[in-house]
UniProtKB/TrEMBL annotation, chains A, B:
Residues 8-163 form the Casparian strip membrane protein domain. It is a multi-pass membrane protein. This is CASP-like protein. One of its GO terms (cellular component) is plasma membrane. It comes from the Eukaryota. The chain crosses the membrane at residues 15-34, 55-81, 101-124, 160-179. Keywords: Cell membrane, Membrane, Transmembrane, Transmembrane helix. It is found in: Cell membrane. Homodimer and heterodimers. Belongs to the Casparian strip membrane proteins (CASP) family. Pfam families: CASP_dom (PF04535). Its main location: membrane.
Length: 199, 199
């Protein structure tokens, strides 16, 4: 098997990062999504749930979607590896199809990375407001009332931040997988060969 | 001049996107940073400024930094173009230095894109809270009181979203510029040539 060392390293990193994103995103969605706390104020029962804050709803939805997407991509990686192991004699398939797959994986991973970063930032912002309030606007902190719920959301957010960082690395890996197809070592001499790639 | 068409297109897109990011980020920082509104409630004077919300402070700081960074990068592009025009005979410099520059530009652009997306999401979240409040938490909306200030922040946020999208495209362009250096057309036959690149 004439597999280039760099290529193998990148494949291993990709699978590891996808597992990491899948696990951490699922954990974040589960921690935030299942947390709730009920308290009684003067015989009035009030319940804190993640649906009370739009940002947490987005967080749960985005991380659940990211976890599902990672699972699908892992299945794709496994299928590609199985195909490569079985039919390694036929040269790895057409490069046009390879580029199309790389483009779709790249777009997907970029979208996941940016969306996870954005929803995590928005949820962190909401949580800081919940923890500290905003005295200038007469918004009171609520974590004094719902301590257990706030701790649970905090754990979920830590997991969400880790999932976001992993997805950023993953986006870089899939950018590498895509753009090296447009590789240009010696592009000044044999650059005309790139004319076949469509832009 | 044997410049490849794809390479020239990418260069033009890079410069255009950098100009766009610079202008839009500076506009966003200026709109949000200079907005303020003073109102009098029962002889008590109150002033709304962006410093009342942490998320807006981050937004202004990040967009000002992104605009400055874009200016520096534009200067780098101009210097590289001038060098290429003057000394085009010497083959474009060593490829090791080219890779180092591409790595630093790539890291910078990725960081800018993620930071702009994150601070914009956080500021949007804060602004939605400011506009609608959060009745479950007894947080009252404030845009009824400070309408002009809220409109100004809204314009700034629109500009910030546009700057964020431009910086995302720019990050993809600089990923292209970096990773095609590790290009692998025909990597299965002549892949050993990639061994010289350090990972």
């Amino acid at each position: 098997m004439a597999v280039v060392g760099l290529e193998r390293k990148v494949k291993v990193a990709e699978v590891a990062l996808r597992c990491l994103v899948c696990g951490l995103a699922a954990l974040a969605a589960a921690l935030v999504g299942t947390g709730s706390q009920t308290r009684t104020f003067f015989s009035l029962e009030k319940k804190a749930r993640f649906t009370d804050m739009k940002a947490l709803v987005f967080l749960v939805a985005a991380h659940a979607a990211a976890a599902g997407n990672s699972l699908l991509q892992l299945a794709r990686c496994a299928a590609a590896a199985a195909m490569a192991a079985r039919g390694s004699g036929n040269g790895g398939g057409s490069s046009g199809r390879e580029a199309a797959v790389a483009w779709s994986v790249f777009s997907c991973d970029q979208a996941v990375a940016y969306v996870l970063m954005a929803v995590t930032a928005a949820a962190l912002q909401s949580s800081v407001l919940g923890k500290r309030g905003q005295p200038q606007l007469q918004w009171m902190p609520i974590c004094g009332l719902y301590g257990a719920f706030c701790r649970r959301v905090g754990e979920g957010l830590a997991s969400a931040v880790a999932a976001g960082l992993a997805s950023v690395l993953l986006a870089a890996v899939s950018a590498f997988n895509l753009f090296r197809l447009y590789g240009g070592r010696g592009k000044r001499s044999s650059g005309a060969g790139n004319g076949a790639t469509t832009w």
